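Appendix B, Record 12. Input sequence as logged:
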Amino acid sequence: MSRNARIASAIAALVVAAAAFVALKPNEESGTSTPATTPVTQSTVGSTSTTTTTEPKPPPAPKAKIIRVKNGAPVGGVEKITVKQDDTIRFTVSADQAENVHLHGYDIEKPVGPGANARFVVPAKITGVFEVELENAGVQIAKLTVEP
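Logged structural output:
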């Protein structure tokens, strides 16, 4: 083996060892080993290089609004919910009395009552301003705005 071939082999071994160390380094928060990066090795004639890429974490889902209904009225007044078109509409209704919650425009109705929340997770496909109401009582509990 020529001197240049031995040097290239030694450099390649060091690059692989460094990439393994980076990929398997202990997680600083928990003290455990977790691969946080993905090493990518590229070779060309006479040289080897390593590039490390990190995959981004997806953003957390937005928290659902919680609308509490007591004695037939929304606690704190009519809740305002605003989302962008193609996002997800998320809200939950709790009530101390049996009732039906109606999301106008999307025409979705769900029962609610003591121990049974009405949970809405709906794709925001229709733009506009929509009323969320206690259907039987005719009381508005939220105003939903879906913006373009």
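The chain has two domains: 3-53, 65-147.
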